[in-house]
Design brief:
Layout: H1 6-15, E1 22-24, E2 27-29, E3 36-40, E4 47-52, H2 56-72, H3 80-96, H4 98-109, H5 113-135, E5 141-142, E6 149-157, E7 160-164, H6 170-183, E8 187-191, H7 198-210, E9 217-219, H8 224-233, E10 239-243, H9 246-258, E11 263-267, E12 273-276, H10 283-295, E13 307-311, H11 312-326, H12 347-362, E14 366-369, E15 373-374, E16 382-383, E17 386-389, H13 396-399, E18 406-412, H14 415-423, E19 430-434, H15 438-447, E20 452-455, E21 488-496
Parallel strand pairs: 7-8, 7-10, 8-9, 10-11, 12-13, 12-19, 13-18, 17-18, 19-20
Antiparallel strand pairs: 1-2, 3-4, 5-6, 6-21, 14-17, 15-16
Helix pairs in contact: 2-8, 3-5, 3-7, 4-5, 4-7, 5-6, 10-11
The protein binds nicotinamide-adenine-dinucleotide (NAD).
Amino acid sequence: MTTLTRADWEQRAQQLNIEGRAFIHGEYRPAVSGATFECLSPVDGRLLATVASCDLADAEAAVADARATFDSGVWSRLAPVARKAIMLRFADLIEQHGEELALLETLDMGKPISDSYGIDVSGSARAIRWNAEAIDKIYDEVAATAHDELGLVTREPVGVVAAIVPWNFPLMMASWKLGPALATGNSVILKPSEKSPLTAIRIAQLAIDAGIPAGVLNVLPGYGHTVGKALALHMDVDTLVFTGSTKIAKQLMIYAGESNMKRVWLEAGGKSPNIVFADAPDLKAAAEAAAGAIAFNQGEVCTAGSRLLVENSIKAQFVPLVVEAIKTWKPGNPLDPATNVGALVDTTQMNNVLSYIQAGHDDGATLVAGGKRVLEETGGTYVEPTIFDGVNNAMRIAKEEIFGPVLSVIGFDSAEEAVAIANDTIYGLAAAVWTSNLSKAHLTAKALRAGSVWVNQYDGGDMTAPFGGFKQSGNGRDKSLHAFDKYTELKSTWIKL
Ligand code: NAD
């Protein structure tokens, strides 16, 4: 819990001493080229920091250092129980610096401070801690062999991992990768989004303070097409883990094929259906969840419930409930603890969202809530949570990931039709079903081609459950013990006795 007021946060923002350099082998350093880029706040357009703009030369240095550190065994050969103890300290330090990290996150990408502190920072510490706690409780296998043989099936760290992450949950997406990658003994190079590099840069020092050896976690801020591409094409990166758009995810697979066939694990985009049947147990609760599913984090959520599928027999009753519920999601200054909708990450993203709102009008959908940029006088990038009714699944606002607070409402008449519309997308990240009929809930959940399905709620889950996508939403899974698969190679050692 934090009891800081908006004035407190504003004051702390003035006092922040923001680090913008890259971090290699335990120390901050400028990009080899000396290049920097400006990190602007979407809250009000203020200049936050100049940040190192890394490129190929920095990637070379970071990968060489990560490889040498891995080969030295200083982390990779440490007993799991020892790695656990250090990572638990790392999680503690993230929590102890929670207010500072939350402030950096909010200033950098515009999300409400209450969420940065209560969701992102605490979720990040939890991700590190959960993986740390798991690592000394996992056993390898002994194969079923003949009497005079011994077959060992063991897991080894892959080696050098590059983690390229997005801007919508900068610290948390990084932590979902760092937790299992570090716990299993790898060396990691973290490449945060150029739109939100500050928390990644900050936690590099916290890792050192916790006792993670230098070179185990290097952080390279910079653009995707420069340093991101250099890491993805690097011949000495063993595994590339990514969260971001489907477009870039596909490009990374090409880079892997063009280079060393590094393993590529992708968490990509979504266009998630939220299906409300007429027999939903509580229509008001379903409407409130539908509003939250598109307004939370300004709709900049890979699992945003951006397609609301409503059974036609209740649609006239249900849509006004959603319109009412979305009024409680109001854009405001994200440093105010009462704000629940902050600024979109930058002007480019805001204009993208506004162009989709225009596409909704152009394609004949009916605007029933929001639809405008607001708080322009602040210098920030704020857009009202927006609802279009009368959408069909072929319209652009129903097909393409907007990654902003724009909801498309689509009617249906039967469970079969609902599932057909829900699955009629290139994505398969998440879906939800609202019904009080147990069989309908299970049958619909089974029929949905998505990595997460929620019943009578939206966005449930925790570190114990895998998270990831079917189809073009990605491959592999973050969270849960299954995530360890991405960071380990299986080895069979066969011994003649
Ligand atoms: P993005 O794909 O534009 O960028 C993601 C990262 O890739 C950034 O660090 C960027 O610098 C880097 N990058 C860009 N071009 C690159 C290149 N050519 N080579 C190497 N790296 C490159 O995505 P974004 O706009 O930062 O994030 C939004 C997207 O992330 C949405 O599509 C959203 O659905 C997705 N996302 C998915 C999940 C999930 O778990 N499935 C979670 C959060 C966000």
